[in-house]
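Handoff note, outgoing to incoming analyst
You'll be picking up this chain. Sequence as last confirmed:
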Amino acid sequence: MTNKLKTVALLMACAAILSTSCGQQSGNATGGDSDTSSLPTVMDSTYKTDTIKVEEKTISFPTTEAALDFMDKSANAARYQSGILPRMAGENLEYCEKLLNNKHNYFIVVDKAVMKVILYDKYGNMVKEYGCAYARNYGTKHRRSDCRTPEGFFEAEGVYNSTDWLYTNDAGYTSPARGVYGPRFIRIKTPVTSTVGIHGTSSPGSIGRRVSHGCIRISNENILELAKYAEAGMPIIVSPGPHDMAVNKKEGYDVKAVTTGATKVEAAPLPEPKKKGADKSAKKETTPAENKEVKEEDQKAAPAEEKKTETTPAETPKEEKKASPSESQKEEKQKTAPSEPKKE
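Most recent structure output, in case you need it:
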């Protein structure tokens, strides 16, 4: 009997210990007092939760050397070295720091310099690359209806099924045509607008051109593939092209570019608009050639006209032959002959 009581007492003590330890772990996890790195990673679907996690584990890099040293000493040093992050550390330390703190498996770069949407893994290695179209006007977006694509470091707000979405223009007219945005829409969270994103298109011929009001278009097939990798909170960088950088500088904005290729992206002046006088001079330059062609055509047509004039003299003698001397004498006799008397 005594042994049974001891056993019961021991079990009760163990239960009390377990209850106390579990309660403490729960309190620390929710209160944020413990090291959350020991807790399992939970992939939350809300944007807010993802943002909080990134902020809790942010690592700062005051210099390029510090960021490079972090990558060199990482267990994934080889993967970092084969990607774009080491170069980004030298060109754009702010973006590199944010990507080194990225808790998602991927990030996206919309490179306006080469008109590409590029998917990278978290170490900066390219996974997918798609041709794209974006806004018709150069420079970053400042307001609604300026027909520009916002530039900078952003995050995905969410991924949506846009199959049946309708397009409404700035005047408020809604087109009845469905499928304008393609099957998926990756909304980009920016401080300027909440209506810009990466989506498909009903106009695949627009890919590779500056034609949109601000969104980034890729083909429907490509957006379905990209949407499989995208999730709320994932970093999305929209990098300006050379002409965009020139416009931003002129307007007093400094938006850094990300080099995705071999050549560094630098500001370049906009192409000068065509002048009316230049158009006229261009037309004048083509005039002599056009005149020459016209002259050649005239020369080809001239013999035919000459033939017509040559036939005219030949026709005149024939008419003269008809009026022979004998006939003319008869006509004169008829004229001089007395007229018949009128019958009364």
